[in-house]
Write a structure and sequence with these properties.
Blueprint lengths: L1 H19 L21 E5 L14 E4 L3 E4 L2 E11 L2 E10 L2 E11 L4 E6 L5 E6 L3
Antiparallel strand pairs: 1-2, 1-8, 2-3, 3-4, 4-5, 5-6, 6-7, 7-8
Length: 133
């Protein structure tokens, strides 16, 4: 019991000492949004409607969560997400077989439950069709 109390007191002293010499306190931790909190979360098919019967072409499947985008060409980690009017602008880091890439993607939800997707340079665009959950 004595060792635990001494450790706790020492740790508290170190924190107080750091603050007293001008160190900035740690920034508050922002919780990662739950998958259901991110409006783009879901499974989609690229440029074709989702059949939802297990017979969809796996090469056209895209899974989006609040943290990443997974498709047949690689995995992209979402570094930043900004809601801009009716669109979501995502800054991502992707891991592709040809190597890593950092870029910007724009997703625009449509009234017909699809999402228009385009990269920053407009070299690739697609219509993502949401699959039933």
């Amino acid at each position: 019991m004595y060792k635990t109390s001494a450790f706790c007191i020492t740790a508290a002293c170190l924190v107080l000492t750091a603050w007293s010499v001008g160190a900035e306190p740690a920034a508050p931790v922002t919780p990662v949004p739950a998958a259901n909190d991110f409006p783009l979360s879901g499974i989609y098919m690229q440029n074709v409607p989702c059949k939802g019967n297990g017979k969809d072409d796996a090469t056209l499947r895209v899974k989006i969560s609040a943290q990443q985008i997974v498709s047949n060409i690689g995995v992209c980690t979402i570094l930043d997400n900004k809601h801009d009017g009716g669109s979501y602008k995502l800054h991502v880091e992707c891991k592709f077989p040809a190597g890593p890439m950092v870029g910007d993607l724009t997703f625009t939800p449509q009234p017909d439950n699809t999402v228009k997707f385009v990269d920053r340079d407009k070299t690739y665009n697609a219509v993502l069709h949401r699959c039933p959950q």
